[in-house]
Automatic annotation (TrEMBL):
A GO cellular-component term linked to this record: chromatin
Main location: nucleus
Pfam families: zf-C2H2 (PF00096)
Record lineage: Eukaryota, Metazoa, Ecdysozoa, Arthropoda, Crustacea
Molecular-function GO terms, alphabetical: DNA-binding transcription factor activity, RNA polymerase II-specific; RNA polymerase II cis-regulatory region sequence-specific DNA binding; zinc ion binding
Function, as annotated: May be involved in transcriptional regulation.
Database matches in SMART domains: ZnF_C2H2
Gene3D superfamilies named among the record's database cross-references: Classic Zinc Finger (3.30.160.60)
Aminoacyl-tRNA synthetase recorded as keyword: no
Residues of the C2H2-type domain: 9-36, 37-64, 65-92, 93-120, 121-148, 149-176, 177-204, 205-232, 233-260, 261-289
Organism: Meganyctiphanes norvegica (Northern krill)
Keyword line: Developmental protein, DNA-binding, Gap protein, Metal-binding, Nucleus, Repeat, Transcription, Transcription regulation, Zinc, Zinc-finger
Protein name: Protein krueppel
GO BP term, example: positive regulation of DNA-templated transcription
Source organism superkingdom: Eukaryota
Length: 344
């Protein structure tokens, strides 16, 4: 007979002890690697029968544990408990090196590796390593070409489910991430963060050859190709090649005759969205441009088109009573860098 709290069954492999012999025997399987419960659907095996039963539901599709806050259901009760913390806001696992908290202990353990610099999961194809095994699995698909997440609206597929979710918003036109400084919205939080740099003026990526700075590494890498002359995207119909995949897709429309961008006022169609925008401003806007404005707009547009950069040229009339006029007869010219979605 044992007292409450007493753990007489000591593991011979580590310093853990248990109140029951059956619990010790089950624990010993961690050290021996024994997994007696085999799945009849796949080659996975488990130490506990309960774990096998929970796993089998993945194959059968059974999800008996329903969330009381939303319509999600789960194969096991433990997964439901973890999910419920999303609704309750409970984050019981706190990092002792910073103020971050987590809903799961496994997430906390992975987070600790940020502080220690430990990256235990090494890619067998290249020299990259990761703090999480799940991140390594996603990365490995770059080498294997595996894209298991298929879009139900088009023929595109993705290496990660989160990438599919972001892509699907192109079809649903959902843009849940809103800029608090202007009226723009985005399909992903990453795109919003990149956009915010326009307002903050932050451009951390500087070219060492011409000293132009960029808001994101992606734009910086594309700019470098101007100096190197690299054009990796080649047209299969002719001998032209391009620095960006988006430019190639637009170019191919010359061969296919596709013009997906239609003016909603005169129904004229265009192969490029920017051409439609220029068309609307030129023919369907109320304000007519002066000769000086037209010349300036043309000069700036031509200059930047040579560098394969998208710029917005904004022409404003300055109020002569409240603002000083410049040498362009009271015109204010603003050239603004703007992110473009050319990387599908």
């Amino acid at each position: 007979m044992f007292h409450i709290g007493e753990k007489p069954y000591q593991c011979s492999h580590c310093d853990k002890s248990f109140t029951k012999l059956s619990t010790l025997e089950n624990h010993n399987m961690i050290h021996t690697g024994e997994k007696p419960y085999q799945c009849s659907y796949c080659n996975n095996s488990f130490r506990k029968k309960a774990h096998l039963e929970s796993h089998t539901r993945i194959h059968t599709g059974e999800k008996p544990y329903q969330c009381s806050h939303c319509d999600k259901s789960f194969t096991d009760n433990n997964s439901r408990k973890k999910h419920t913390r999303i609704h309750t806001g409970e984050r019981p696992y706190q990092c002792n090196q910073c103020d971050k908290c987590f809903t799961q202990n496994s997430n906390l353990k992975s987070h600790y590796r940020i502080h220690t610099g430990e990256k235990t999961y090494q890619c067998s194809h290249c020299d990259k390593s990761y703090t999480k095994n799940s991140n390594l699995k996603i990365h490995t698909r770059i080498h294997t070409g595996e894209k298991p997440y298929q879009c139900s609206h088009c023929d595109k597929s993705f290496t990660h489910n989160s990438s599919l979710k972001i892509h699907t918003r192109i079809h649903t036109r959902e843009k849940p991430y809103h800029c608090v400084q202007c009226d723009k919205s985005f399909t992903s939080n990453y795109s919003l963060k990149e956009h915010n740099k326009i307002h903050t003026g932050e451009k951390p990526y500087q070219c060492s050859q011409c000293y132009i700075s960029f808001t994101s590494r992606r734009y910086f890498n594309n700019h470098i190709m101007i100096h190197t002359g690299e054009k990796p995207y080649r047209c299969s119909k002719c001998d032209k090649s391009f620095t960006l995949k988006g430019y190639l897709k637009t170019h191919i429309m010359i061969h296919t005759g596709e013009k997906p961008y239609q003016c909603n006022q005169c129904h004229k169609t265009f192969s490029r969205k920017s051409n439609r925008t220029c068309h609307i401003k030129k023919l369907h806007t109320q304000r007519s441009y002066t000769t000086t404005e037209k010349q300036m707009h043309s000069k700036i547009s031509n200059t930047y088109s040579l560098n394969e950069s998208k710029v917005e040229v904004k022409v404003e009339q300055i109020d002569s009573e409240t603002n000083e006029t410049d040498s362009l007869s009271g015109l204010k010219i603003e050239v603004k860098e703007e992110p473009i979605d050319m990387y599908d």
